[in-house]
Design goal:
This protein has seven helices and no strands. It is mainly α. The chain starts with a helix and ends in an 8-residue tail after the last helix. The chain has one domain. Helices cover about 80% and strands about 0% of the residues.
Amino acid sequence: MAALFQSLGKTIIAGIIILVALLLIASGTGDSSGMSHAWGIFVMRWLHVLSGVMWIGLLWYFNFVQIPSMPKIPDEQKPAIGKVIAPAALWWFRYGALATVVTGIILAWGNGYLANALALGTGHLAIGIGMWMALIMAANVWFIIWPNQKKALGIVTVEADQKAAAAKMAMMGSRFNTMLSIPMLYMMVAQQNGGGALIW
C-alpha cells in the first residue's frame, strides 16, 4: 500500500480505477436508456469541477501560503521555491485555468445556454457573470501573471529592476484573481441552486 501512495501517478491511476469500479456498480443498478447525453454532460461537469479545483486551489495556495511565507524563508532556501516548486505549480495553474475554461464552454454549449449566459440573458445571469469573471481571470493568468512570473523566476532573463517590477505585477495579478474568485465561485454555485437566483 505504501508504494501506491509514494507515486503520484499510481495514486491517480488508483483513483481512476476506484471511480470506474463505482460507475460499473452504479450502472448495473439503474436504467441507462436515454442517458448518453446526460452522462456526457455529467462527465464534462465533473471535469470542469476537477479542473477548477486545480486552478483555484493553486491560486489560493500562492496567495494564502507561498507569497506570505516567502519573507520567512531563509535566502539560501528560496531558490528551491523559485527554481523547482513555483515553475511546476505555475504549469498546473496555467493549464488548470485553460482546462476549466474549455470544459466550462463545452458544458454550457452542451446544455444549450452558452450564448444566453455570455449575453447575461434571462435565466442564466448568475452563470453568465461567473463565466465572464472566469474568462477575465484566465486571460489574466496567461497574459499578465505568467509572462511576469517568467521574468520574476528567471525563466526569461531581464535586468534586476525589471525582475522586481515583474514580480510585483505577477503578485498583483494573482491578488486580482483571488479577489474575483470569491464572487465568481458564488455565481457558479448560485446558478445550480434555485435557477440562478443571485440572492436567497
